[in-house]
Amino acid sequence: MSIIKLLPKAVINQIAAGEVIQRPASIVKELIENSIDANAKNIKLIIKDAGKESITVIDDGVGMDKKDIKKCFLRHSTSKLKVTEDLYKIKTMGFRGEALSSISSVAELRIKSKTKTCKIGNEIFIKDSKVLDEKKSDIQSGTIINVKNLFFNVPARRNFLKSNNVELRHIFDEFIRCALSNHKVNFILMNEEVEVFNLKESNLKKRITEIYRKGYEKKVIQCNEGFEDINITGYIGKPENSKKTRGEQFIFVNNRFVKNNYINHAVVKSYQGLIEDKKYPFYTLFLDIDTSRVDINIHPTKTEIKFDDEKLIYSLVSSTIKKTLDKYNISQSINFNADVNFLQEVVKNYDSPKNEDKEINDIRSKKGNDWDEIFESVKSENKANFIFEEEENINNNKPVQFLDKFIFKQLGEKLLVFNLKNCQQRIIYEKFKKDISKYTNTQQCLFPQYIDLNSSDFEILNTIMEDIKSIGFDIDYFGKNSVVINGIPAGIEDINEKDLIEGFIEETKKNNNDLESERRNQILKYFSSKVKIVNNKILDESEMNLIIDKLFACKNPKFTPDGKQNYIELGIEKVENLF
Questions:
Q1: What is the structure's pLDDT at 292?
Q2: Furthest-apart CA pair in the chain: how many Å?
């Protein structure tokens, strides 16, 4: 008896849907791309319950007649491919004919559509890949697609969806990508009957400004380079406006958003020496390349691609960024026209005896071999610079600071070496973790700090706002996608409010945890690693002892919250083994 059976159509569709439809944002991407392929000039997206309840896309594209509206949800039905060769010259967003079929297998799908030549439109209702209703519609030319009850027949998939704020952020990301790559199209995004975006047809620079807030036009510079059959255009951010958060980095190949670590590395590498470590520049780059040199048919989401010569693309992107930065006098440069003879003369004059330190010349001028007097004068002048105190101070067992990074302290027959940064991280972490039900004391800022965020980052901030306040930040909303910081946690040194808030957002993005306790713990870890109790480089004896005492008052004084050692113990045997 045969044990191999052909899977039912419904199961096949659900398997395919698992690859294409991962979350509500996947549906948004597929539907908007279909509208773009239909030459729509106006696209409206309406979201309810972060897309779990309802997603609606309305466009004024070419529409579909009665026959096409019945075919569009069938698997592998498409108007964009006819023969195999078409796979190698794809210019449309969609081409596999899987999107509507996959959506209809895991949600309720209602389509209304009408072409300009038809007198009346048509409507069809599909559930679980089955047509349950079809009728005439009074829709104007274009298409309206409504998707309800996502994953109603796959409860496990629905349970794996994240919180509304997380899912909404992914929807915003997909919407922004489509809006950036199609700046000549009008876009509207409604969330729970509130208008989030209303983007009018414009040029790319204005579209960037509309999405990311006013003032962005002064923070970006234009790229425009051509290399044979490859053109690279778009905008990159000025180095001083780089952020600790990702999310404002976009690469489009033939107008399709792609994820390519190789190209991302080329861009970031070009900024080397101009931005701080772990900061990311803004860039929206468009690569226009012959379709025969690109393979986009390698992943169901169509965001991964292959180039026929990746090294060439890397070099061209890197060259474009460096040239653009140099053109606007931003990159560091070497003056090859400098007078070498002049530089040699400067060095020569600097080394001459007349420029030597006066005190050294005074010592040299002393007659005879009065070395005791010379030694005493030098020792008294440099006493403050000695790493270790004199013998009488060693007997008093005072802590000693070394290289602004370590503290040495003798304890019995052991020498303890403390890592100053790690110790402060553990102390701060436990101080702010003691009582999560009470807000920490706040010290008011002399001047309020205003921070503008993009829509996606602002949604993340909404989810962690109470966690940030519980640390001691006096933070509040200030207009659309903006916040104001009026106060910071008391007793903290070396604090950059803007960098910290951006860091909290980035940590939340990376960990993507819905559990409130875990989320707050991640924020606390990041906070404790970025701030200090004492900021001065040279600590006095009382400051060093205070840090040591506070460390040993912690529940876990040995390690940082990230598991790094705070101090090491050196016994006599270990020290002797060093010699």
A1: 81
A2: 115
10-residue block means of pLDDT along the chain (579 residues)? 67 61 90 92 95 94 88 68 53 64 88 91 89 89 93 85 87 94 95 91 93 82 89 93 87 90 91 86 93 72 80 92 85 47 42 45 46 49 43 59 86 86 89 65 84 84 87 86 88 81 85 71 87 76 87 90 89 80
Nearest alpha-carbon partner for 544 in 389, 424, 399, 410: 399
Length of the chain (residues)? 579
431 φ, ψ to 5°? -60, -45
Q: State the residue for tokens 């020496």.
A: 273
In 486-515, which residue ranges form alpha helices assigned H by DSSP?
Answer: 497-511
- Give dist(CA 436, CA 488) in Å, integer: 17
How many CB atoms neighbour CB 572 within 10 A? 10
CA-closest candidate to residue 88, choices 255, 235, 289, 296: 296
Q: CA 191 to CA 110: how far, in whole Å?
A: 20
CA distance linking residue 497 with residue 487, whole number of Å: 9
pLDDT at residue 371 in the model: 46
Name every residue whose Cβ is closer than 8 Å to that of residue 489 and which is 6 or more positions away in sequence: 432, 440, 441, 442, 443, 471, 472, 473, 495, 531
Q: What phi and psi values does residue 100 have, to the nearest 5 degrees?
A: -65, -35
Q: Are 101 and 75 in contact (CB under 8 A)?
A: yes
β-strand pairing of 482-489 with 442-452: antiparallel
Strand pairing partners for 387?
none
Distance of CA 146 to the CA centre of its chain: 31
Residue 184's SS3 state is: coil
Check if the beta carbon of residue 381 is closer than 8 Å to that of residue 530.
no
Domains of the chain: 9-201 (3.30.565.10), 206-327 (3.30.230.10), 342-385 (no CATH), 388-579 (3.30.1370.100)
CA distances from 143 to 39, 97, 138, 445 (A): 11, 17, 12, 53
Q: What pLDDT is attached to residue 52?
A: 92
| CA 85 to chain CA centroid, nearest Å | 38
300, 29 Cβ separation under 8 angstroms: no
Check: CB of residue 494 under 8 Å from CB of residue 531.
Answer: yes
Give the contacts of 237 (CB within 8 A, at least 6 positions apart). 219, 220, 221, 248, 281, 282, 283
One-letter amino acid for residue 25 of the chain:
A
Question: What DSSP state is assigned to residue 280?
Answer: B
Which residues touch 499 (CB under 8 Å, ≥6 apart)?
244, 530
Backbone angles phi and psi of 409, in degrees to 5: -150, 130
Q: What is the 3-state secondary structure (H, E, C) of 394-449?
A: HHCCCCEEECCCEEEEEECCEEEEEEHHHHHHHHHHHHHHCCCCCCCCEEEEEEEE
Q: Residue 199's closest CA among 182, 189, 187, 215? A: 187
